[in-house]
Design brief:
The complex is a heterodimer of chains A (367) and B (351).
Chain A: H1 3-7, E1 10-23, E2 26-39, E3 43-48, H2 54-62, E4 70-77, E5 80-81, H3 87-93, E6 98-101, H4 115-126, H5 131-144, H6 150-153, H7 163-176, E7 181-185, H8 193-210, E8 213-217, H9 221-227, E9 230-235, E10 238-244, H10 245-250, H11 255-263, H12 303-307, E11 313-314, E12 321-322, H13 335-338
Parallel strand pairs in A: 3-8, 3-9, 6-7, 7-8
Antiparallel strand pairs in A: 1-2, 1-4, 4-5, 9-10, 10-12, 11-12
Chain B: E1 20-32, E2 40-54, E3 59-63, H1 70-77, E4 85-90, E5 93-94, H2 100-107, E6 110-113, H3 117-120, H4 127-138, H5 145-155, H6 172-184, E7 190-194, H7 202-219, E8 222-227, H8 230-236, E9 239-244, E10 247-253, H9 254-259, H10 264-272, H11 278-283, H12 310-314, H13 318-326, E11 332-333, E12 339-340
Parallel strand pairs in B: 3-8, 3-9, 6-7, 7-8
Antiparallel strand pairs in B: 1-2, 1-4, 4-5, 9-10, 11-12
Helix pairs in contact in B: 4-5, 4-6, 5-6, 6-7
The chains are: A alpha/beta (367), B alpha/beta (351).
The structure holds adenosine-5'-triphosphate (ATP) and magnesium ion (MG).
Organism (chain B): Planotetraspora silvatica
Protein name (chain B): ABC transporter ATP-binding protein
Family (chain B): Belongs to the ABC transporter superfamily.
Chain lengths: 367, 351
């Protein structure tokens, strides 16, 4: 499945990246040490709860963070260091060598120009062609990404198009720039499922035709399962597990990953099977306590977890790594071995992993 | 917990009579031209001939993509939106013809839970005040209000000592629980849940889904569960109705409908939902719909789905296509085990 992951040349290397924001409440530690390597043609999926630092990581790569952001660590694009690079240097890379696709396509589109004009602009910037040729190529690209009636739509303004078509226009512009890396941050989250399927196809086409590597950020574990070669799971600003897609889905070794997999309703599971929520909510990123940030929600946490934050270490084979003191004990463990099908909201101290008496509980306890 | 238990459990004589019956519901919106006094220039056909029933203690899932009319339907059910024609009967009483005081009492029996918990909770009120508000308005539970609100909070899995906190002090999942507690305050028989978990992270969403499941069993509630996420709906619904461009195109028992979808739109919808299993997901065959949703101001003649239908495009001959253009397919049993609105319905397992 991940042949690209082992053969291609490394295009993007992120090493021990941290990002924090000074705020009135204190320092928000949004990203606390993210490292990954992305090879040519590889698709890396990044998943994790809202606020876990997925977007901030990507914005750091794109140089799109506000000035107040404090960034440490290293981001190298084909060997060139991006952290600390001046605006002019970044601008050359941004949009061309590294393309970004956001959840809201209007972030990238100019409302006062036709979509054809905007695709043609990107083509003219990278190719020595006439305006007429650029326009013809724009229609071709719009057609490639599945814009219906591309020949007519080329003259539309963004507001005349549906969300799904706009997103495909953004993908066509990204293709025109022949990027080495495409970073797509929740590109289909706002779209209906049938449209999502079309846009994912368009992204796939763009990635394959340009030979770009892709970082696909999404909260949808189904989308990642279908698209990614490798998966990075984030929690509270840190990678807690990384590995080939099959390792993450079939052999997870971090309780949070297991929790995520157990909580998704899935079309292929028995309908009567109760969902397994993770109790509690993610920690505040201001004044994070010591230890593993998942401890308060973790069904197997021990005293040690409150004191020591586990590093990301190799589980079995090299590319699969997990950040849990007990990852060795999790071999062969499935979500229902760890989590209960409670409907309670938070864990209670005396019954770890179980709802307290008197609160609504799993089916077994109902009258 | 006895004070908020209901008697309408499935199997009781009440279960034989639908709690809600929607018949031939039509909702049209006028489209106005520019300016304050703009003339009506067209009509949005938001909901067209929609009929369904909900029985005590059961969940009907109403699904479809944005703009298909599912939220308008749920608002018409609650009397928040005027029906252009058709009827909404709550326990056999027509909502449209009720005198205001009867309507007020009936309103207590059906409550709504919205998608965005933050937008639907007044940020200046404490959680206690939010949950107690409907009690105050209807002048009930005067004596034991504090106790009762605390009980409601425990029922939805909240710490009953947190009544004096404000909504912003709670997480998204907890806010949705506050919304549910408030909806339960007047002991309704029907909850209309409009995308109740769409704004939540999956790990939190699972707890709210389980809570709704528990409440239904314990209180015998009926749910109209409106959602675009079919994997959630499959999990909570007993029966499902699939909407496309204002019409129900297929309906049936949940298990049956997901196992044997017979409308090409339902098939496409189910096949488009990603499964969080890399091997299965990569081996799946997708039924792809082309193009985009037509405007509801000018819906296609005959079958509204035909402009995007893969069967229409790939498998029907000219005469068959002409029929799709001219004749609106009725939502009817066509030998597929459940009602479906397609002239050429054919059950195909897509999972
Ligand atoms: N400019 C900023 N100032 C202060 N805090 C910020 C800023 N931008 C982001 N954050 C915080 O950084 C953390 C990580 O946010 P980020 O947007 O990366 O999360 P995410 O994983 O992308 O979440 P989602 O799934 O909701 O998109 C959050 O706590 C967020 O509130
Ligand atoms: Mg984000």
């Amino acid at each position: 499945m991940s042949t690209a992951a082992t053969t291609g040349e490394e295009v993007l290397v992120v090493e021990d990246l941290t990002v924090s924001f000074p705020t009135d409440d204190g320092l928000v530690q949004a990203v606390r040490g993210v490292s990954y390597r992305l090879r040519e043609r590889e698709i890396l999926g990044i998943v994790g709860e809202s606020g876990s630092g997925k977007s901030v990581t990507s914005m750091a790569i794109m140089g799109l963070l506000p000035r107040s952001a404090r960034i440490t660590g290293s981001i190298r694009f084909r060997g060139q260091e991006l952290v600390g690079l001046r605006e002019s240097g970044l601008n050359k890379l941004r949009g061309s060598k590294i393309a970004m696709i956001f959840q809201d396509p209007m972030t990238s589109l100019n409302p006062v120009h036709t979509v054809g004009y905007q695709v043609a602009e990107a083509i003219l910037a990278h190719n020595d062609v006439s305006k007429a040729q650029a326009r013809r190529r724009a229609v071709e690209l719009l057609d490639t990404v599945g814009v219906p009636n591309a020949g007519q739509r080329v003259d539309s303004y963004p507001y005349e198009l549906s969300g799904g078509v706009r997103q495909r226009v953004v993908i066509a512009i990204a293709m025109a720039n022949k990027p080495d890396v495409i970073i797509a941050d929740e590109p289909t989250t706002a779209l209906d499922v049938t449209v999502q399927a079309q846009v994912l196809d368009a992204l796939r086409t763009a990635q394959q035709e340009t030979g770009a590597a892709m970082v696909l950020i999404t909260h949808d574990l189904g989308v990642v399962a279908g698209q990614a070669d490798r998966v990075l799971v984030m929690y509270a600003g840190k990678p807690v597990e990384i590995g080939d897609v099959e390792d993450i889905y079939y052999r997870p070794r971090m309780p949070y990953t297991l929790g995520l997999l157990g909580s998704v309703p899935r079309l292929d599971a028995s309908r009567s099977q109760r969902l397994l929520p993770i109790l509690g909510s993610p920690p505040s990123l201001v004044n994070l306590p010591a230890g593993c940030p998942f401890t308060p929600r973790c069904p197997i946490a021990q005293d040690r977890c409150e004191r020591e934050e586990p590093p990301l270490v190799t589980v079995t084979s090299h590319p699969h790594r997990a950040a849990c003191h007990f990852s060795q004990d999790l071999a062969g463990v499935r979500p229902h071995d760890l989590f209960t099908s409670t409907s309670a909201d938070a864990r209670t101290e005396d019954h770890p992993g179980r709802p307290s008496a008197g609160e609504p509980t799993g089916e077994g306890d109902l009258p | 917990m006895t004070s908020i238990d209901h008697d309408a459990t499935p199997g009781s004589p009440d279960a034989l009579r639908p709690i809600l019956s929607v018949q031939d519901l039509v909702v049209h919106f006028p489209v106005r031209g520019r300016g304050l006094l703009g003339r009506t220039t067209g009509t949005v056909h938001a909901v067209c001939d929609v009929s369904f029933e909900i029985y005590p203690g059961e969940t009907l899932g109403l699904v479809g993509e944005s703009g298909c009319g599912k939220s308008t339907t749920s608002r018409a059910v609650l009397g928040l939106r005027r029906a252009t024609s058709g009827q909404v009967l709550f326990e056999d009483q027509d909502l449209a013809n009720l005198p205001p005081d009867r309507m007020r009492r009936l309103r207590r029996q059906m409550q709504i839970v919205f998608q965005d918990p933050m937008a639907s909770l007044d940020p200046r009120l404490t959680v206690y005040e939010i949950i107690a508000e409907p009690l105050r308005i209807h002048g009930v539970h005067k004596e034991d209000r504090h106790q009762y609100v605390a009980e409601l909070m425990r029922t939805v899995g909240l710490n009953s000592e947190h009544g004096n906190r404000y909504p912003h002090e709670f997480s998204g999942g907890q806010r949705q629980r506050i919304g549910i507690a408030r909806a339960l305050a007047l002991e309704p028989k029907l909850l209309v849940l409009d995308e109740p978990v769409s704004a939540l992270d999956v790990s939190i969403q699972a707890g709210v889904v389980n809570l709704l499941d528990d409440l239904q069993r314990r209180l015998g509630l009926a749910y109209l569960f409106v959602a675009h996420d079919l994997s959630v709906v499959r999990h909570v619904a007993d029966r499902v109705a699939v909407m496309y461009l204002g019409r129900i195109v297929e309906t049936g028992e949940c298990e049956e409908l997901f196992a044997n979808p017979a409308h090409p739109y339902t098939q496409a919808l189910i096949s488009a939902i990603p499964i969080p299993d890399p091997r299965k997901e990569r081996e799946r065959r997708r039924i792809v719909v082309s193009g985009e949703m037509p405007s509801p101001t000018d819906p296609p003649s005959g079958c509204r789905f035909r402009t995007r239908c893969p069967m229409f495009a790939d498998r029907l001959d000219d005469a068959q296509q002409a029929r799709c253009r001219q004749e609106t397919p009725e939502l009817a049993e066509r030998g597929q085990g459940h009602p479906v609105a397609c002239h050429f319905a054919e059950a195909v397992p897509v999972l």
